[in-house]
Design goal:
This protein is of the alpha/beta class and 149 residues long. It has one domain: Rossmann fold. The protein has a five-stranded parallel β-sheet with strand order 3-2-1-4-5, with helices on both faces. Helix 5 links the parallel strand 4 and strand 5. Helix 4 packs parallel to helix 5. The chain is globular, with a radius of gyration of 15 Å.
Length: 149
């Protein structure tokens, strides 16, 4: 039985398609929806200086899941939650600081998700760090990867 469906979002078009799929799935199974996201903290002092000195903009191939500050994540979660609630679904949200793939897996487990829905962005890459790759290999629940490209 599917009682809790979790969906990961970063506010991107790819993630929005995963949210749409999760909403439809929650409607069909009369399940609760949990919208999840991750954010990055702001390092301070020497750590921030070292990161700034070493930082190089990612190539288009490296961009797979946008990381945002906590405030931006709150807005993203509120939009997705509102979409689900407009459809009459019971919905809650959660976010945590850290690597998006690991955060989604941890939060899905914390919320007892039966299924974790994510977009496929990054699935074709063979590079460590891919959010869909991390989630599909580490999640303790079933994972639905929504094909978005």
């Amino acid at each position: 039985m599917i009682d809790v469906i979790a969906v990961g979002t970063d506010g991107s078009a790819t993630a929005d398609r995963a949210v749409d799929a999760a909403i439809e799935m929650a409607e069909r199974f009369e399940a609760e929806l949990v919208v999840l996201s991750a954010y990055e903290g702001r390092p301070s002092g020497l750590a921030a200086a070292a990161l700034a000195a070493a930082w190089m903009p990612p190539s288009p191939l490296e961009v797979e899941w946008s990381s945002h500050a906590a405030e931006r994540v709150d807005e993203i979660l509120a939009r997705a939650t509102h979409r689900a609630q407009k459809r009459g679904l019971e919905c809650r949200s959660a976010a945590s600081e850290g690597d998006p793939g690991h955060v989604l897996v941890e939060l899905a487990e914390t919320h007892n998700a039966d299924v974790l829905v994510i977009g496929n962005r990054g699935m074709e890459r063979r590079v460590l760090g891919s959010v869909p790759n991390t989630v599909t290999h580490r999640a303790n629940c079933s994972v639905l990867v929504v094909k978005t490209s």
